Amino acid sequence: MARPHIIVVGAGYAGRSLINRIAARRVDADVTLVDPSSVLTERVRWHERLVGGARDARPLADVLPRGTRHVVARAVDVDLASRTLTTDSGLALGYDHLASTMGSHTRRDLPPGVGELTARLEDGALAEGVRSVAVVGGGLTGIEVAAELAQARPDLTVHLISAGFGGGLSPGAQAYARAALERMGVLSREGARVAGARGGVLEIEGGEPVAVDAVIWCAGVSPAPFPAGARLALDGAGRIEVDAHLRVPGHEGLWCAGDQARLDIASGEPLRAACAIAMPMGTHLGDNIASAVRGAPTAPFSMHTAMLCVSLGRRDGIAQHLGEHDVATERFWTGRRAAWIKERIVRATSWLPRAEGRMRVPLYRWPSAPLSAAPLLLTAELDP
């Protein structure tokens, strides 16, 4: 009998976690990764790359289990009836199980003229000659980007333009972030929306225009579209509807996890797009696919996010404790302690899945109910 073939599309946090958990479960199957890049993408460090602070890129193979086949290409078509995936190189791959973990990308529906000024986070450092930057979006990514630029580049004028500020943080943590940005010299304008750009000037709805050399757009992400050839049930944001086991209903052998998947939590709200969600989802999906290959029952996914972390430059940050339904409590840590916690968690996103795949032992666990921060800190201190 032929060995089962598992294809994973996308090498983000969910995809890498899934592949390494399959190896940790010692599944007797062939595993193929389809992703156009051969370089590890640490998305949670993109704000560091803007100022040259992130570590040099590593080969993706360094964080994958031995024996994983990596097809460096894009998936462009999937025939669900014949279970065949086709890449942009023309390669056709049959599969028994297909896991879509393609993640998300920065929203591309920008106001008129803004795209000409946009410097993408994934492109790395800012171009020479840039002296003023507008960070658009006051979510956690926008806050991190503005703080990183202001601390590392005091020669820059940094504007933070946002409709809202610090979503996910408690009022106290939001106040701390505002004060930290003000100390760094960030010019913050809340309740503002960018209407367009013309000649290096951002037009603000109902407000004064802002002249800048570059724009960094941090106002939300969109899920990656599934390859053509398959009509899947999507929610209003374009995410793939999955059941509690991370299966795509109505399509045997098709699974989805990470930012691309729509799965509601107990409150009825969907799980947010974040590395902290994608890793547990990908790991759990690895467990479920391993069970499916062996003919064993799969299990529903559940988790509780104990904490979310925001860096405010290299020496400051916020570690926000979360309660029921991923809602911020009034408890949070700040300063160097929070920056230390954030750095250890970020490092774990690479080394922990890699350790699972290399040691062939399941190591990664996550809470399914609210808990104190002590276990989280213990996990952070395991960082080698």
Task: Write a brief caption for the model.
The chain is α/β, with parallel strands linked by helices and 384 residues long. It has helices spanning 13-24, 46-49, 140-152, 171-184, 275-293, 335-359, 374-380; strands at 5-9, 30-34, 69-71, 75-79, 84-87, 92-94, 97-100, 104-106, 132-136, 157-162, 187-190, 194-198, 201-204, 210-211, 214-217, 221-223, 240-241, 254-256, 261-262, 307-311, 317-322, 328-334.
Characteristic key phrases:
7 helices; disordered C terminus; FAD/NAD(P)-binding domain; 384 residues; globular; 24% helix; 23% strand
Topology:
Elements: E1 5-9, H1 13-24, E2 30-34, H2 46-49, E3 69-71, E4 75-79, E5 84-87, E6 92-94, E7 97-100, E8 104-106, E9 132-136, H3 140-152, E10 157-162, H4 171-184, E11 187-190, E12 194-198, E13 201-204, E14 210-211, E15 214-217, E16 221-223, E17 240-241, E18 254-256, E19 261-262, H5 275-293, E20 307-311, E21 317-322, E22 328-334, H6 335-359, H7 374-380
Parallel strand pairs: 1-2, 1-7, 2-3, 7-18, 9-10, 9-15, 10-11, 17-19
Antiparallel strand pairs: 4-5, 5-6, 8-16, 12-13, 13-14, 20-21, 21-22
Helix pairs in contact: 1-5, 1-6, 3-4
